[in-house]
Amino acid sequence: MKIEEHLPLLEEILGEWKADIGKDYPAYKNHVYRVVHFCLSIHQGNREDREKIIIAGCFHDLGIWVNDTFDYLSISIELAKGYLKRKRQEVWSTEIELMINLHHKITRYRDSKYLLVEAFRKADWIDVSKGKRAFGLPKEDIQVVIDKFPNSGFHKKLIQLTKAEFKKNPLKPLPMMKW
Question: Which fold has domain 8-168?
Fold first, then answer.
């Protein structure tokens, strides 16, 4: 697996949100780098696919920090759509919206029109499960990515958010999960 330590588009997009993300910036940035690398390994596409993966990666959980909520998917989608509009890439909106909206889907995404949605879903699950769900990626490759982009407290933050949401919303503590 080829490791790219610096992805200019990723750095540019996330850099705009550094103040909003605050102290969690290194943790989120490394999470995005891991998800992007896993997704690029699962789906070897063209330059356009690569850009879509990076854009979706940057925005997929961003609503957590921008709106201080664990019910963040619609916010993350709106942020991504705003970015795409500013960059005159609205033609990508449907696919990137699906990538963000379904990245916590438990079951497989089956629409072959948007192959990146399933690849992105798998990539996020690989990271959130710390490689326990590997979807065919070699464990050694997963570990290389994890070592290169350390957790920096990302999983701890997810546990804190989950506990807080359970207290606040015990009947629907994980609003981002989809079947």
Answer: Hypothetical protein af1432 (1.10.3210)
